Amino acid sequence: MSSITVAKVLNNNVIIAQHPQYAEVVVIGKGIGFNRKVRDLINLSSVEKMFILRNQEEQEQYKQLVPQVDEKLIEVMQEIVLHILQSSRQPLNEHIHIALTDHISFAIRRNEQNIAIHNPFLYETKEIYPEEYSLAEYAVGRINEAMGVRLPPDEIGFVALHIVSALSNRHISEVKEHSLLIGDLVNLVEDHLEYRIPRDSLDYSRLVTHLRFVLERLRRGETVRETSSLDGLMKREYPEMYMLAWKLTKVIEKRVRIPVYAAEVSYLTIHLQRLAQKKEDEADMQQPD
């Protein structure tokens, strides 16, 4: 019978292992790392509820993510992904392990700091993707219960979009008409910031995921409600990143020939500001004492 060999234990629920078919893999499973040691053999047939990240880029991103996330959240996210798989009976793009876990972890931190992010796509998401929205309701409810938090209903819409993305498998590498545009947009951001975003980093994953969602909303003709208060805040607090976001939306409009709602500028500004802050933090770390 096939077995995997433990190469490194990241926590009780995540290990890096050597797989007979896929070489190095990240294996996610409840208790998979408990009391495991390097070179231990794990029989694949004896492991239940296991997810294997085979894609090298996905692996690197997940390895970066695990140390930043509460181990309890990793466990409940496995339960949620399994529920989505069993309920939808469709294959999921494995990127959901990274994108959704990262999103929820960030949402919990925002919630703890009393920072509310309004979801202007909530109503449209519920109308267009009722099944995915129902799965997202379960996910947010389970997270609130397991983590002892109270994520707002707005998060249901955000989670639903992650589920839609994973079920439709509209990954950047598989959507030719959007891949070039996204690459060009990332290059524009890098040129402006004079900072190359590592392609296997969470920062790159976050930016590309957001841009994919923008293009997906445009492709489906979804309307976006105006968020004048957030727009004013972003324009006032982060004028440089707001202008960059505005330029990016104009490039999108020109390439896809569809008007981009102004609210998209505000949400894109949030992502760009995170990147700008990351660049500043790295520059400070490189300064001599």
Automatic annotation (TrEMBL):
<keyword id="KW-0677">Repeat</keyword>
<dbReference type="Pfam" id="PF03123">
    <property type="entry name" value="CAT_RBD"/>
</dbReference>
<protein>
    <submittedName>
        <fullName>PtsGHI operon antiterminator</fullName>
    </submittedName>
</protein>
<dbReference type="InterPro" id="IPR004341">
    <property type="entry name" value="CAT_RNA-bd_dom"/>
</dbReference>
<dbReference type="InterPro" id="IPR050661">
    <property type="entry name" value="BglG_antiterminators"/>
</dbReference>
<dbReference type="GO" id="GO:0006355">
    <property type="term" value="P:regulation of DNA-templated transcription"/>
</dbReference>
<dbReference type="InterPro" id="IPR036634">
    <property type="entry name" value="PRD_sf"/>
</dbReference>
<feature type="domain" description="PRD">
    <location>
        <begin position="68"/>
        <end position="173"/>
    </location>
</feature>
<dbReference type="Pfam" id="PF00874">
    <property type="entry name" value="PRD"/>
</dbReference>
<feature type="domain" description="PRD">
    <location>
        <begin position="174"/>
        <end position="282"/>
    </location>
</feature>
<dbReference type="GO" id="GO:0003723">
    <property type="term" value="F:RNA binding"/>
</dbReference>
<dbReference type="InterPro" id="IPR036650">
    <property type="entry name" value="CAT_RNA-bd_dom_sf"/>
</dbReference>
<dbReference type="InterPro" id="IPR011608">
    <property type="entry name" value="PRD"/>
</dbReference>
